Amino acid sequence: AQKITQTQPGMFVQEKEAVTLDCTYDTSDPSYGLFWYKQPSSGEMIFLIYQGSYDQQNATEGRYSLNFQKARKSANLVISASQLGDSAMYFCAMREGPWSAFGNEKLTFGTGTRLTIIP
Amino acid sequence: NAGVTQTPKFQVLKTGQSMTLQCAQDMNHEYMSWYRQDPGMGLRLIHYSVGAGITDQGEVPNGYNVSRSTTEDFPLRLLSAAPSQTSVYFCASSSLGLAGESSYEQYFGPGTRLTVT
């Protein structure tokens, strides 16, 4: 089974609208972390936001928020007031196991969603 | 700080040739890793290291070797390149987390685009 599933290969959104990028995950470990990365056409990987499995509140970073629904094993990224510069590939990733254990910094990535913002 | 640097940016190899992709970081991070990115498949972990002298395999290690003699450097060696190794390679680094939850993001290098003909 896929550990990280991103079901939207591509999305088109009007500028200034909010957008939700879906991510579901599969793990039996009670301790894990979920990340979102942005990859613009230039190719670099840019960290956006992190959610720990024990975090009580949804993570937020500026226009980015993570809609964490633990029981449903989903960690959707919400971008408010989208901008043309948000056009990029977006990857959801997961780390399993508690921090400080050997190798638990490994990330498993989804296949990504290509977001295109329309002016 | 330069962050994570990778050289070269682009490389073309013939089948059977060997080469080393270089990765360096100046953030004193214990953890370093190599991923490959193929179209439609996201990033997949090749090898990783939690400190000098300590390395282990990731999801797709075949055809690649690594070593870690210093904290700063983590080179990836292709011993006999194959067309299936055509990909974009990313090096990443992060601090090792303390016990408990932390948001230790991984910092990625700019990538090396490798083509094997």
Walk me through this protein's architecture.
The complex is a heterodimer of chains A (119) and B (117). With 119 residues, chain A is an all-beta fold. Helix content of chain A is 0%, strand content 49%. Chain A has strands at residues 4-5, 10-14, 19-21, 24-25, 32-39, 46-52, 60-61, 64-69, 74-79, 88-96, 108-109, 113-118. In chain A, β8 and β9 (74-79) form a beta hairpin. The model of chain A has no long low-confidence stretch (mean pLDDT 92). Chain B is mostly beta strands and 117 residues long. Chain B starts with a strand and ends with a strand. The chains are: A mainly beta (119), B mainly beta (117). Chain A binds chain B through residues 4, 31, 33, 35, 37, 43-45, 47, 50, 52-55, 91, 93, 98-100, 102-112, and chain B through 31, 33, 35, 40-45, 48, 50, 56, 58-59, 88, 90, 92, 94, 96-108, 110-111.
Strand content of chain B: over 45%
The profile of the biggest β sheet of chain B is: 7 strands, mixed
Radius of gyration of chain A: 14 Å
The chain pair with the largest interface is: A-B, 30 and 33 residues
Q: Count the strands of chain B?
A: 11
The poorly predicted ranges of chain A are none
Distance between the termini of chain A: 38 Å
Mean pLDDT of chain A: 92
Show the helix and strand layout.
The complex is a heterodimer of chains A (119) and B (117).
Chain A: E1 4-5, E2 10-14, E3 19-21, E4 24-25, E5 32-39, E6 46-52, E7 60-61, E8 64-69, E9 74-79, E10 88-96, E11 108-109, E12 113-118
Parallel strand pairs in A: 2-12
Antiparallel strand pairs in A: 1-4, 3-9, 5-6, 5-10, 7-8, 8-9, 10-11, 10-12
Chain B: E1 4-7, E2 10-13, E3 19-25, E4 31-37, E5 43-51, E6 54-57, E7 64-66, E8 76-78, E9 87-94, E10 107-108, E11 112-116
